[in-house]
Amino acid sequence: MDQQLPLIEISNLKTYFPLDEGTVKALDGASFTIYRGETLGIVGESGCGKSMIARSILRIVDPPGRIVSGEIMYHRLRKQGEAMVEDFIDLARIDPASPNMRSIRGEEIAMIFQEPMTALSPVYTIGNQIVEAIQLHRKRTKKEAYEEAVDLLRRVGMANPERRVHEYPHQLSGGMRQRAMIAMALSCRPNLLLADEPTTALDVTTQAQILDLMRRLKAEIGMSIVMITHDLGVIAEMTQRVVVMYLGRVAEVSDVRTLFHEPRHPYTQALLRSIPKVGRKARIRLNPVTGMVPSPYDRPSGCLFHPRCPAAIAGVCDQKEPPLISIGDNSAVSCFLYGGKE
Amino acid sequence: MSPAPAVSKEKLLEVRNLCKYFPIRRGLFQRVAGSVRAVDDVSFFIYQGETLGLVGESGCGKTTAGRCILRGIEPTRGQILYLRGPKDTIDLARLNDKMLTPLRRDLQMIFQDPYSSLNPRWTLLEIVGEPLLVNGIARGKALEDRVAELLRRVGLRPEFMRRYPHAFSGGERQRIGIARALATQPRLVVADEPVSALDVSVRAQTLNLLQELQAEFHLTYLFISHDLSVVEHICDRVAVMYVGKLVEMAETEELYLNPKHPYTEALMSAVPKTDPDLVSDRIVLEGEVPDPGNPPSGCYFHPRCRYAIDQCRHEVPTLEEVTPGHFASCHRANELSLRGVTT
User: Fold this and answer.
1) Fewer CB within a 10 Å sphere, N or C end of chain B?
2) How confident is the model at residue B8 (pLDDT cuts 50, 70, 90)?
3) ipTM
4) Cα–Cα distance measured from residue B340 to residue B343, given in angstroms and rounded to the nearest whole number
């Protein structure tokens, strides 16, 4: 990447859910940066907080969950005469229902979800829903907005967009619904697209189509994409940098090549050992992480991964929390093997 | 690490021309207006002790085929030959319920969703013990001992026998489902997407468990999955389905390196590689999987196939043995040179 301008800087973000059974720490001090124009992957197993990152950025965390501390610094570019001025808005502190947040949500930062059927309304046509998104943020007459909707549907590769625009979500296949949702998310040309498991519910050949489409639209619009997924194959294909999360914390941040060839954190190493690779000849036994992701009410002390870690240092890893230490080149790791003991 | 499973060349199951059509009913009198050909003239066989993968995209009929074999749903036509022993061949498709009952213990199933496939109001003892009770294998103390042994074997603590499924995580529940399937010491286990609902690390543990159990109990698996990397890892041979038809079947390595059907080629190329350095010039298929209620003429794949010729539009191809042990259903199987997975 030539320019490394930060778009969103997340630091020490904590999103908690106070429940009757105890507090679930969905995010417990996550820190990383999303740069302009990059595709950043967020990977981890269920319950690691990867979806909560996207929901916290957009301020759509379901109650009783809330952001208890930390910063989500959004760098907003604004034209002032000739020059571009950078405004800083802390999304963690802004009122989620304020006009400012509402204009950011959907217009500057958009999101697509895993299951398009739950994200699209079943009682409105695809066209209706895209037109609503356009009219919410732009001054357009209904007719103009409809024309734009048809154009958007065409650009996301929908055959017969003039007819499809009048159809309801249930009339479309899974892949087509995902395309419609992408069209809606991109209607205002956002700076950032948060994609939460966008292809998990799709078949491989449809997944290939959608990933292809996202890559093409990214080149066209020049937005950043945050790709949230548990599928390391999607990460390898789509992203430039990767954040590995475990139990609400960042285990490792690194560029995608380093992640796959020299993973640093023992958890990343274990994850990579757990996946069967296509094209590997011998039927060797997988060497998975032992044990299970701990219950959210019963988090281990010290490093959260130490009970499952083959490299855990007794008396250190179970006592102290490892800090996220920067190791150059936009990489960071949270493990005592790489320092931070003192 | 794990010993190579003893795959004999004795067939255990042979499916011939299996069809399952679901009627489409319309109008006031619910007249039959057509049919969805979920499984359409499918033939394959499984050797004793092997794992046969049945792969394809959603709606291709792989689950329906698996359930027909166990007579969970009634096949419309075709033979399901269970080769129980030398000169002891039984056509499962022809038996009535009563005659089928004694055979049920030999044929078991593992389900995809570990949440909906276990009765939440039953304890582990009841869930795992039921097949033993129903088939008259064990009762009372002997039943408890056997359940304890099964739970221990799949890596669960026998003390948990009196607990209910809600107390367990997804991976543990899948182990409960595996213990239940193994309770009657079956010979064939149909595993329908057994690891699809599990997280990466738990998935690997479960795959290892399935392999260990296969070696220990001489199990034969029909492994239904959409995940090609899992299938390559665990299966000896693989059969590919598309819109209710079997399009290709071969030994795993042969199929992955040397596919003979254009659909298999596209499917392989669509799998994201877990290596950022492998530049993939991927074949992106145009269009969508056709509706099995209204399939295209000729070869069902021809509207999306980049090698289609005129013959493909008119003639339905049949499954032929292209090279020994490698079956494909494509008019051009002999002339095309298709690309397998690159390593």
Assistant:
1) N
2) low
3) 0.81
4) 9
